[in-house]
Amino acid sequence: MSEAVAEAVAERFTRLYGAGPEGVWAAPGRVNLIGEHTDYNDGFVMPFALPHTAVAAVSRRTDGLLRLHSADIGDGAGDTDGTGGVTELRVADLAPGTDRGWTAYPAGVVWALREAGHEITGADIHLASTVPAGAGLSSSAALEVVVALALNDLYGLGLRGWQLARLCQRAENVYVGAPVGIMDQTAAACCEAGHALFLDTRDLSQRQIPFDLAAEGMRLLVVDTQVKHAHSEGEYGKRRAGCEKGAALLGVDALRDVPYDGLEAALERLGDDEEVRRLVRHVVTEDERVERVVSLLESGRTREIGPVLTEGHASLRDDFRISCPELDLVVDTALAEGALGARMTGGGFGGSAIVLARAADVETLTKAVQEAFARAGLTAPRVFEAVPSAGARRLA
Ligand code: GAF
Fold it and tell me: Which residues have a catalytic role annotated?
């Protein structure tokens, strides 16, 4: 399967650039099992990689040019003979804020590598991705990480997965201008097949937690609502600023430093700033939920994580206030039809929800969610099963 993908992407590269690539790499999208909006609070997260990947065929150049092409996005999408739609940039001219399109992600990675002192003298890159865009499944982090890994290998930089993740986050924060945390890039770089990644975003220490639902007669469904509400980026920034305000008022470096058993005292200290109190309560309880899920999984009590996921959704909906009617509809319908647990995943305001279900209930649940969307006059959601898959890797 991945051989055929690598071959197809390499073949398109050859048509575009006139010679075969030096190699082909892949990096996955992710779903987050639990630990939402905790990563920019130095807290815990637990994503796993999807089988959907961004694939890059890449060759080095020595003349300072960066040539970028995508099969799925931007100008390349409408390119029928496979040779048009190439964006050409000079690596020396790359500067934050100069590019608002998809090319900002790969170009931002080249900029971040050079800014960190790595000598990148140019590259030809062709990208193709199966990670659904705008679905809260980290299609942009997949693009960043696949390019970072390819350049790391080709230029012999010797950087580890977590170091590539940090550079990709810098590309996204500074070059693209999105104030995201470190979860998505680390998930794309470091996840392993059959496992969820328990990550401490403060020091990036990590533990691979075996996560094989099929063996236990369960499934995890991803329901992409196909909606993305306007202003989601601005709302993300507001939540982040609110959390930072909470940490400052409490005199801690980050909300991660507020212990779960000190939550009530912390909320009292915040007085009547209701908004900050809600944000703080979400982050502190969410960190505790991640630790609870890890301990349940490690003691073989997988089914019991369901209610913890559902609690997480309530906290995101009521305290963090980033859910939306479509995500709530998925969660409520799935739970009413016997799901073991359900929650929104990712940044919020649309995108995807996850549903933990007994294998035998998958069909009924899927149908129930689809019918509920149809009754509400909404676009049909895309439902698929998420199997914990491999992180970034070289394919050829
Ligand atoms: C988005 C961000 F990119 C992540 O860093 C994280 O904050 C997530 O939203 C919410 O948990 O995916």
Answer: 184
Instruction: Provide, for the chain, the percentages of residues in helix, strand and coil under a 3-state DSSP scheme, each rounded to the nearest 5.
Output: 45, 20, 30
Per the domain annotation, does 25 fall within a domain?
A: yes
Q: Which atom of ligand 1 is nearest to the CA of 32?
A: 11
Tell me whether 0.95 is exceeded by the ipTM. yes
User: What is the full per-residue pLDDT of the chain (396 aa) written as tens digits?
Assistant: 688 999 999 999 999 999 999 999 999 999 999 999 999 999 999 999 999 999 999 999 999 999 999 998 644 444 555 556 999 999 999 999 999 899 999 999 999 999 999 999 999 999 999 999 999 999 999 999 999 999 999 999 999 999 999 999 999 999 999 999 999 999 999 999 999 999 999 999 999 999 999 999 999 999 999 998 877 789 999 999 999 999 999 999 999 999 999 999 999 999 999 999 999 999 999 999 999 999 999 999 999 999 999 999 999 999 999 999 999 999 999 999 999 999 999 999 999 999 999 999 999 999 999 999 999 999 999 999 999 999 999 999
In the structure encoding, which two tokens stand for residue 213, read together?
Answer: 């639902």
Any domain includes 100? yes
Domain of residue 80: give its range.
Answer: 2-208+390-394
Measured from the CB, is residue 286 less than 6 Å from ligand 1? no
How many domains is the chain partitioned into structurally? 1
Place of tokens 């001219």: 93
333 marked among binding-site residues: no
- In this prediction the pTM is 0.96
Alpha-carbon gap, residue 290 to 34, rounded angstroms:
6
| Domain CATH code at residue 186 | 3.30.230.10
Give the phi and the psi of residue 102 in degrees, each rounded to 5. -65, -30
Q: d(Cα 301, Cα 146) in Å, to the nearest integer? A: 35
Is 204 a member of any domain?
Answer: yes
What does the buried/exposed string (b/e) look like for 282-308 if buried means 16 or more CB atoms within 10 Å of the residue's CB?
Answer: bbbbbbbbbebbbebbeeeebbebbeb
121 is in an annotated binding site: no
Could you give the CA distance from residue 187 to residue 207 in angstroms, rounded to a whole number? 12
239 Cβ below 6 A of ligand 1: no
Residue at 139: amino acid letter? S
- 275 is a domain residue: no
Please state the atom number of ligand 1 nearest to the C-alpha of residue 45.
11
> Is residue 70 part of an annotated ligand binding site?
yes
Ligand 1 centre to CA of 232 (Å) is 12
Of how many residues is the chain composed?
396
